Amino acid sequence: MKGDFHIHTYYSDGVFSPEKIVDLAVDAGLEVIALTDHDNVLSYKVAQDYINSKNINLKLIPGIEVNTLYKDYEVHILGYFADATKSDFKALLKTQQQARIKQTKEILRLLAKKEGIKIAFEDVKDMVAEGGSIGRPHIAKAITNVGGTSNVMEAYSKYIHKDSPVYVERKTVSPFDAVEIIYDAGGIPVIAHPYDIDIAEKLIKELMNCGLRGIEAYHRKHSPAIVEYFSTMAENLGLIVTGGSDFHAPNIMNGQIILGKNFVPEWIYDGLIKEKKNIDLAG
Fold first, then answer.
1. Is residue 67 part of a domain?
2. What span, in angstroms and rounded, lies between the C-alpha atoms of 47 and 29?
3. 72: pLDDT confidence band, cut at 50, 70 and 90?
4. What are the two backbone dihedrals, phi and then psi, of residue 36, each rounded to the nearest 5 degrees?
5. Alpha-carbon Rg of the chain, whole angstroms?
6. If you count DSSP H runs as helices and E runs as strands, how many of each does the chain have, helices first?
7. Which end of the chain is less enclosed by CB atoms within 10 A, N or C?
């Protein structure tokens, strides 16, 4: 089935509602999608209710992207089919949300104290849907909105990085915890866009001990050579291959929607379904 298994909505740092994403997916000729907002699963029910109410022919996979830290690396863990009612999974989401709020409030405090840039926390919170995940993109946008910088990229370069005197690192969970919790909730843990991590192969092997079951080899940032590299690695390690557009917003450069861009093989969906059955049998 033609699908896209890495999509963000305005419940995290995407710009569109779940309903809008569903419509775009149908327009793109997709048959199955996964909404993978950062550190929450709220968009799933909204999208599924919309699909049901409009009798839309589109399959929806429960998904999430958990932001984690390991040493000096930011590691993102995708999770598919996790049971969101499991206590450890719910606790993970709560921990992640609290960390996001604490980080944001501390950065805003330092911006006001050291740079004279005053931003109300509510103004950042209002950038996401109710209960959604606030993060660095929203802080950067808020800085720009109050005239602290001329654009979002400047906000990042001046304030949203480790060397900035106003930046505070988020106290997030480890990738090992995220993988284990997703797996224990009956989900499929997958390492996202591994090309971003120069220790990917070593880390992937270590994460397998906690239940890692897949590698996101197909990603809009991955060249054909990188896709081949991580696909071969997955095959050698007995892991499944996944992929997606990592869609957040229309391409600003040319105004195109890249949701469902034709680079995710149709067999990816079959691999996810087969792996979910294997996990359920093992459980």
1. yes
2. 17
3. confident
4. -125, 65
5. 19
6. 10, 7
7. C
